[in-house]
DUF3617 domain-containing protein (Nitrosomonas supralitoralis), 173 residues
Amino acid sequence: MREIFIASWLILAFTTSSFAHQHIRPGLWEVTTRSDLLALVPHIPSEQMQQLSDLARRYGLKLPEIENGAATSKVCITEEMAKQEIPTYFYENRSGCTVKNAFRTGNRYQLDLVCSNQHFQGDGFAEGSFINPENFTGNTEFDSTVGGNPVHASAETSGRWVGDRCTAVNPLQ
């Protein structure tokens, strides 16, 4: 069960950050990720959830609210981040992954992910579309090995700009 949740957490990390590939509006964003793996979260014992929360914190992440197979989180995008084409620092520093073959055409983006660290190894693909500077949608596919177990995960993500100020959320660094 822990392996499945780690894979879900990784997809959430990838999809939560992938909207920043375009010049978007800085400020507070609400990001919702839907996945079959996230639907398994209510079946994880509270002691294991605490361990997973501690693991996420070590990567600089806070586990989002997860309900009905969807995780909703708040993300603060600074002016500097909003101007960046591809924020590879997020993937490399937060999840141990490297972005490869990232490109954008018009309002669509695509990128490959290659990950290798002590907790998981794998690769994935993300694509999405910026509807406007305040909205995006996207999909992520990820094949990995977590604790020696193969895990395939996919997720659908949507994001919407909430406001100019990030009073309750620290910016991603």
